[in-house]
Amino acid sequence: MAKQVVEVDRVVIRFAGDSGDGMQLTGDRFTSEAAWMGNDLLTLPDFPAEIRAPAGTLPGVSSFQLAFADHDITTPGDQPNVLVAMNPAALKANIADLPRGSDLIVNTDEFTKRNVEKVGYPESPLDDDSLEAYRLHPIALTSMTVEALKEFDVTKKEAQRAKNMFALGLLLWLYHRPTEGTIEFLEKKFASKPQIMKANIAAFQAGWSYGETTEEFSVQYEVKPAAMQPGTYRNITGNLALAYGLITASHQSGLKLFLGSYPITPASDILHELSKHKRFGVMTFQAEDEIAGIGAALGASYGGSLAVTTTSGPGIALKSETIGLAVSLELPLIVVDVQRGGPSTGLPTKTEQSDLLQAMFGRNGESPVPIVAPQSPADCFDATVEAARIAVTYRTPVFLLSDGYLANGSEPWCLPEVDSLPVIDPDFATKPNHQAEDGSEEFWAYQRDPQTLARPWAIPGTAGLEHRIGGLEKADGSGNISYDPENHDRMVRLRQAKVDAIADTIPDIEVDDPGGDARILMLGWGSTYGPIGAACQIVRRSGVKVAQAHLRHLNPFPRNLGEVLASYERVVVPEMNLGQLNMLLRSKFLIDTYGYNQVRGLPFKSSELVDVIREISEQMEESS
Amino acid sequence: MTTDAFPALSLVPKTDVEMKAKDFKTDQEVRWCPGCGDYAILAAVQSFMPEMGLKRENIVFVSGIGCSSRFPYYMNTYGVHSIHGRAPAIATGLATTRPDLSVWVVTGDGDALSIGGNHLIHALRRNVNLKILLFNNRIYGLTKGQYSPTSEQGKVTKSTPQGSLDYAFNPVSVALGAEATFVARAIDSDRKHLTEVLHAAAAHEGSALVEIYQNCNIFNDGAFEPLKENDVREDHLIRLEHGQPIIFGNNHEKCVIRDSDGHLQVVNVEDVDPSDVIIFDSHAKDPGLAFGLSRLYNPRTLTNTPIGIFRDVTHREAYDRMAQQQIADVIESEGRGDLRSLLHGSDTWTIN
After folding, report:
1. pTM for the complete prediction?
2. Per the structure, how many domains does chain B have?
3. Residue B181 shares a structural domain with residue B37
4. Cross-chain residue pair B97–A256, CB shorter than 8 Å
5. CB A43: neighbour CB atoms within 10 A?
């Protein structure tokens, strides 16, 4: 029977279950199907730090949220329209986010007395009226999956494990999605285990058919493709885009890529990804610790590689001394910090923006390091290429501040034309650059380029340029050890001036101020771009005038930033920290900026930023 | 000197100019204390360098922090004076990415075994093509006289007025424990022997750890005197030579045997059957004998101190060679990567 198809402009789905239930995979597959249909989309995985927390407990709940729409969206949604809860723990952990009237699909098989009590429900919420406000769909996902697979040569446990595919099939049916991509995916994933492959495909199809035949769902939903700029797209996570950005920078500079790294959540996927790309000459080195990871990278940079180290906040703390050495040696080095909740071990799998000041100041001495931050998963690609450009051009370590949300979240990426990508010139030194008093030619390792103030990059193997560098202060020009007070003062200022000079080559910050007469500016950096943008769009619909600007370069700032800030009556700086950019802005520009801060380990909800903008707008109305 | 003597350096460009020790001296004033053992080591290294027959620009010295770590400033090669303990890590990145370089690490007992212990053992474990010269003076010199991880227990220093409590590290034992493929010990004042050891280290493919006993005449003067003074030296030193019975002493009166429990023991030659004297084998795969020999000495009196090459084996391939090979193999079998197809992946859609 053909069911009614209802058209909607935007859907937010959250899959939630045990960390062993395959929720991330289920979400990924749904994402691929949505992308295929040409929807704009954004995803937000949320999983525990424990690999397998005890089954059925609240700490073990893993979820994956995705928003897909027929229009340009910038966040994975504040609240789901449909929640799939694979067990009581998943229900309990997520129900508060589900708006009343939304669809709630629960796996009834898991709502046993024991499981229900384990998470503190006095009795099964399916049996009382506590879920009355929702469109509850109680479905025996596990037993129906097992039933569907009874003819297959798989164990009961294997059959039960396929329940996520049953759920995926059902959801794809509900949202009118094609199935071919997932079948192809399963064929590939389980190519070496044909029985498991067949079982998963059968479970997937059973879920789809269940939706088609059951009376449980009276309508299907459809989300039309979004009107996106023409181009070829793929779906991409931040960590993958970042890894591709590194390979691209290597390609565009002609420098071999070397990654020195130590495994750490949420950055390890970059190491995994790069280790797969030896065809591009990429060398990855899993070091004995964070310090050796960056040490090896710095050594590779000295040898003329495009050198990178990847980590998260705790790793940066360990690498600080070597970053300082890189500042002193003035060698190119990309330091990737995929930020997570801190301090200390903090929240390994949750997101935060609290390493900005660590990146800015977390070293001994006057030790300036440029900082670049991507604003969305796909933007990790461009931000990485930009970080490489700065590192190589200015012979300096550069911080690339991603975060856990960008790392694991995904969105469609409009693929760049390879020919249009920027070229990075390593400009190695090949000959002496100074005349000694006796008239002979010699090489001065700290003779700077007058424009960029960058020093020459002379790599071992270059005859006649043998030189020694180190962490001790160097004489301006020759690079020999110098303890001279005036020289040290000059070198400290030169290193700062070099980093400041990068502002000459970065674009002015652009302000999105449709009417040109807003009095409030929302200024962000990093992954808050999406929620801030969504909030601005929402309040503008109700007539509130608000401008948005987003910083990619945190050090140095774009040249026009001070002017932009001064032209708004109220500058609001939302950050997932206690006001780190805010502190930098206030100290640099002496402007009374207003911080809005949350450190919950989760991205901002656009709705809460909407409230912030409205409140400030109303205050300003009242006082004017 | 033919370059065939240095299989480890087969990928490093050779010089066609005759080099001399003075070609490896820089114009920088050497700033060690007068009388420091480092001068002798510097001279030995500078005069050894031409023997490798390499282009000077393809030689790099990397050091950490400490008196010995000033070494690169005095070598007219490429050089990096890095940070405390990290030289093996930095050198690993350099050596792994640049097989055309001869990479040397200069470090001290504090730098290598205290703050940098982790990097040292892992560089040795991986067998990265590095030649690590560990200057052991059993004291912290640059920070003016605190005890080090190789100081004998009970040492009275500025930071241990009642005597140090730590048990000392034996660098050779540590290196063998990490299964280093080349481990040797030499003495700053014995230039001929030191040069022989440097030669063997340079020829070795993989990590080489050379412990060099070095006198700090300011804070730990005479630490190795029993190994240097003419009349007592041979009584203390066990000169290890591959394929030779381990016999030593002023009158060759002492030897090393295995007792009935399998432990090594120093006994009088005249008390044992000559066939019981251990024939030293530096090429043995098993590091057991070398380790046993490293444990013979008395750290306080330095009696029974073996010097020479404890271990020199080739069955472990060098890390950097393998790392380069993996990349070459993938490119050979799959071809070079194409950036456009990488970025596109397998799952794209087009909007017109």
Report:
1. 0.93
2. 2
3. yes
4. yes
5. 26
